[in-house]
């Protein structure tokens, strides 16, 4: 048997969560909240199941849900979307990303990845026979130099993948980045895949620079969103993809055969729940408080806190504590000190070591406090 992904092992999120569970460590590795979705949302799912919403949803998603998504994107980003043709509900952000890549990347096509990036991008490109072309960002600021990135574009470039707010760095692309990007891609055939699953987790009064705000970019883009991140239910695996009609038509050709349609009672519940926009409008303040709390509890530790402008991830530099490579240190931190994190090297193809760890702060203050106490005990 010849593996289609010879260099791929088990995803780091599964590995670290399993290690945390095995050793009873506080799990700040894989990104998920340790609190529940609201009682109302849980009740809505139950009600829809009882009411008989248990068979296949329409392939592109429940019409009412797509209408509500369109209304939300109009209100937030000024986007004028046709819910019939430009929105497809997916089984999570990762599926939307995979489907978008499968729909557009031909064997031999080049796909530009900006690293560090989510670990599904590269294998998804490789499975389609695409060639990943890596533009690597460096700590501590992780800024994109668009001119340098532009030099990687060739006639074979099919796609560029961006992610803002960025997992794992916690950085944002801002208006100036998007304006530059739009100019860069003009007169090319490059498709932009924009992973915006952390759209609401933007802090200090900043605005999310969604591709949906830039019509000149949107016309070549597929944008990915996640209910799991927005409503605290990553295990419900539901999200959506937005793109112009011509691209969405191709996206759906693949979507219909790899999932057909996403979970019906969840879609019905989300459609009802989205009527109340306060649930997502309150998220920046909710998570900014957690970021600030976590930063405060580890302020006196030997971990150096990097800036975090968005997402629910905090990067820390541990060079004052250990010379070990990231993966080794992460495992020891889990086993010996009882806190699990993600090595940032897992987000780079070359596995480079910058002595950086990613901690997820989507946790109750009580848990963050306990994790902080353990991290304060770590010394060289
Ligand atoms: N996106 C989440 C993270 O970065 C995890 C996703 C997953 O585990 N597949 O932690």
Shape: globular
The small-molecule ligands in this entry are: glutamine
Taking pLDDT < 50 over at least 5 consecutive residues as the criterion, the unreliable ranges are: none
- The number of domains: 2
Might you state the CATH topology name of the largest domain? Aspartate Aminotransferase, domain 2
CATH architecture of the largest domain: 3-Layer(aba) Sandwich
CATH superfamily of the largest domain: Type I PLP-dependent aspartate aminotransferase-like (Major domain)
Based on secondary structure, the structural category is alpha/beta
Q: Roughly how much helix do the residues carry, as a percent range?
A: 40-55%
Distance between the termini: 46 Å
Number of strands: 13
Q: What fraction strand?
A: 5-15%
How would you state the average pLDDT, rounded? 97
Give the count of helical stretches.
16
> What is the rounded Rg?
20 Å
Describe the biggest sheet?
A: 7 strands, mixed
Biggest sheet strand order reads: 2-8-7-6-5-3-4
Q: How would you describe this protein?
A:
The protein is of the alpha/beta class and 380 residues long. It has 2 domains: 12-30 and 282-376, Aspartate Aminotransferase, domain 1 (Alpha-Beta Complex); 39-279, Type I PLP-dependent aspartate aminotransferase-like (Major domain) (Aspartate Aminotransferase, domain 2, 3-Layer(aba) Sandwich), CATH 3.40.640.10. Helix content is 40%, strand content 15%. The protein has 16 helices and 13 strands. The chain has helices at residues 12-22, 39-50, 63-77, 83-86, 93-104, 121-127, 146-150, 175-185, 215-218, 227-231, 245-258, 264-273, 278-281, 283-297, 326-337, 365-376, and strands spanning 26-27, 87-90, 110-115, 131-136, 157-163, 191-195, 221-226, 239-242, 304-305, 313-317, 339-340, 342-343, 356-360. The strands form 3 sheets. Strands 2-8-7-6-5-3-4 form a 7-stranded mixed beta sheet, sandwiched between helices. Helix 3 crosses helix 12 and helix 5 packs across helix 11. The longest helix has 15 residues, at 63-77. The mean pLDDT is 97.
């Amino acid at each position: 048997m010849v593996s289609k992904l010879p260099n791929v092992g088990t995803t780091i999120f599964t590995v670290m969560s399993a290690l945390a569970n095995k050793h009873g460590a506080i799990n700040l590795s894989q990104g998920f909240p340790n609190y529940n979705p609201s009682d109302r949302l849980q009740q809505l799912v139950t009600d829809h199941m009882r009411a008989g919403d248990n068979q296949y949803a329409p392939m592109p998603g429940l019409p009412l849900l797509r209408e509500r998504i369109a209304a939300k994107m109009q209100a937030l980003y000024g986007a004028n979307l046709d819910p019939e043709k430009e929105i497809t509900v997916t089984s999570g952000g990762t599926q939307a990303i995979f489907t978008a890549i499968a729909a557009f990347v031909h064997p031999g096509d080049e796909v530009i990845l900006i690293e560090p990036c989510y670990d599904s991008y590269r294998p998804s490109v490789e499975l389609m026979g695409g060639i990943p072309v890596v533009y690597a960002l460096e700590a501590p600021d992780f800024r994109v130099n668009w001119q340098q990135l532009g030099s990687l574009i060739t006639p074979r470039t099919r796609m560029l993948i961006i992610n803002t707010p960025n997992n794992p760095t916690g950085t944002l692309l801002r208006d100036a980045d998007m304006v530059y990007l739009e100019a860069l891609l003009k007169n090319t055939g490059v498709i932009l895949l924009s992973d915006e699953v952390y759209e609401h987790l933007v802090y200090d009064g900043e605005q999310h620079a969604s591709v949906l705000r830039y019509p000149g970019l949107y016309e070549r883009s597929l944008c990915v969103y996640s209910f799991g991140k927005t409503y605290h239910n990553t295990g419900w695996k539901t999200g959506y993809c937005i793109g112009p009609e011509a691209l969405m038509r191709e996206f759906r050709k693949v979507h219909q055969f790899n999932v057909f349609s996403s979970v019906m009672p969840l879609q019905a519940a989300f459609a009802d729940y989205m009527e109340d926009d306060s649930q997502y409008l309150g998220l920046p303040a909710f998570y900014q408080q957690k970021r600030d709390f976590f930063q405060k509890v580890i302020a006196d530790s030997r971990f150096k806190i990097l800036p975090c402008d968005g997402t629910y991830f905090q990067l820390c530099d541990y060079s004052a504590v250990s010379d070990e490579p990231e993966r080794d240190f992460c495992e020891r931190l889990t086993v010996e000190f009882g806190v699990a994190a993600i090595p940032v090297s897992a987000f780079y193809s070359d596995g480079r070591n910058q002595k950086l760890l990613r901690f997820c702060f989507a946790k109750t203050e009580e848990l963050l406090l306990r994790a902080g106490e353990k991290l304060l005990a770590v010394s060289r």
